[in-house]
Design a protein that fits this description.
alpha/beta; Quinone Oxidoreductase, Chain A, domain 1
Length: about 375
């Protein structure tokens, strides 16, 4: 249902339109009531913050569906854009509706849509790919050379309704709740990172215990990792890391991370997953990895970073991988099966369910690290 706030505001707008039309033409024109507005969180300016406002409903297009947003989650990328750091300033293009993680019910279907129908609960891939470039031809759709990102290059899902192309929609299993379904994309990031190499029987260090890092902890334990170390600077998130199964948590504010891990793993960690994007964490990640070990990078630094390439990378023979998004749609399929098989439980990381009107509080919690996954509803 549409919020009371929106209904009241729309009524006021319609009354003003009717009165204005009546005064000018002596009658009420039907066009006054034709435009339908919906509530959305919009990044309007190239500065910190966002605004909750009414926007025009997206027009249904061929090969697309219109869906009512049932739940939408805040991602670290959204925080970058909200805070407007250097990375966001180089990529985002305001004004745009924010957000890209969602679960929504299909309410209308465009021409040529073959596999979705009204009532389906869907989520959507953020990477809108062209299907024709060299990378798409190689089935690297997530690395499309012409990629557009939902909520960055085009309007996102922090709105009452979202327009989704059928080829980027993921039909959710009816047994999965909208709250959990809205967090599948970060789970997909974790799945992509963890299973980019072998973790069974290996020691793993995870830097960054946001939602993706937390998912990675449980995935590593489910896959048979021998030990999982979790590093963060938030006591709140380190507590969550323990609940997700971490064998040891390390507070980067008060502990010498490299020495602590080296004392437990004298030869270094077999696998290191860097999820935070913090420059110091990237440096530490390379240092704690064993020779010929795997270092997988997902976190996005807000600016350029300095590392010791000679000693910490080349001379150690590290296998360093960059991960961007999810493999379309093999990662989604694996994540869905892991959820159904209960090898990962996203309910453990969903710590806050807030109304969209509380977005400022939500972003403050994210920035301060005093939350796991935050899910917003209208």
């Amino acid at each position: 249902m549409i919020s009371t706030f929106v209904i009241e505001k729309r009524c006021l707008v319609w009354i003003e339109q009717i009165e204005d039309k009546s005064l000018k033409s002596g009658g009420i024109g039907e066009s006054s009531l034709e435009t339908y507005f919906l509530l959305a969180l919009v990044k309007e300016k190239r500065a910190r913050g966002a605004i909750l406002k009414e926007v025009k409903e997206p027009e249904l297009a061929s090969n697309h569906v219109l869906a009512k947003v049932r739940a939408t989650s805040i991602c670290g990328t959204d925080v970058h854009i909200y805070e407007w750091n250097n990375w966001a300033a180089s990529l985002a293009k305001p004004p745009k509706i924010m957000g890209h993680e969602f679960a929504a019910e299909v309410v209308d279907v465009g021409d040529n849509v073959a596999h979705l129908k009204k009532g389906d609960l869907i989520s959507g891939e953020t990477h809108i790919y062209c299907g024709y470039c060299h990378q798409c031809r190689l089935a690297n759709f997530h690395l499309c050379q012409n990629v557009k990102l939902r909520g960055v290059d085009m309007d996102g899902c922090f709105a009452e309704y979202v327009l989704v192309s059928e080829n980027t929609a993921w039909k959710n299993d009816p047994s999965i709740s909208p709250f959990v379904a809205s967090a599948q994309e970060p789970l997909g990031n974790a799945v992509h990172c963890v299973f980019a190499g072998d973790v069974t029987g290996n020691s793993v260090v995870i830097f960054g215990c946001g939602p993706i890092g937390l998912c990675a902890i449980e995935l590593c334990k489910s896959a048979g990792a021998s030990e999982v170390f979790a590093v963060d600077v938030s006591e709140y998130r380190l507590d969550l890391a323990l609940k997700m199964g971490a064998d040891q948590v390390i507070d980067g504010r008060t502990t010498d991370v490299v020495s602590t891990i080296s004392s437990s793993l004298p030869d270094g960690a077999d696998v290191v997953l860097e999820m935070s994007g913090a420059p110091i964490a990237l440096d530490q990640a390379l240092k704690v990895a064993r020779r010929a070990g795997r270092v997988t990078l997902l976190g996005l630094p807000s600016d350029r970073v300095t590392i010791d390439v000679s000693n910490d990378l080349i001379l150690k023979g590290l296998n360093v991988q960059g991960i961007f998004g999810r493999k379309i749609f093999s990662t989604w399929d694996l994540a869905s099966r892991l959820l159904k098989g209960r090898q990962v439980d996203l309910n453990k990381i969903i710590t806050h369910k807030l109304k969209m009107e509380e977005f400022e509080r939500a972003f403050d919690l994210m920035a301060e690290g005093r939350c796991g996954k935050i899910v917003l509803t209208f």
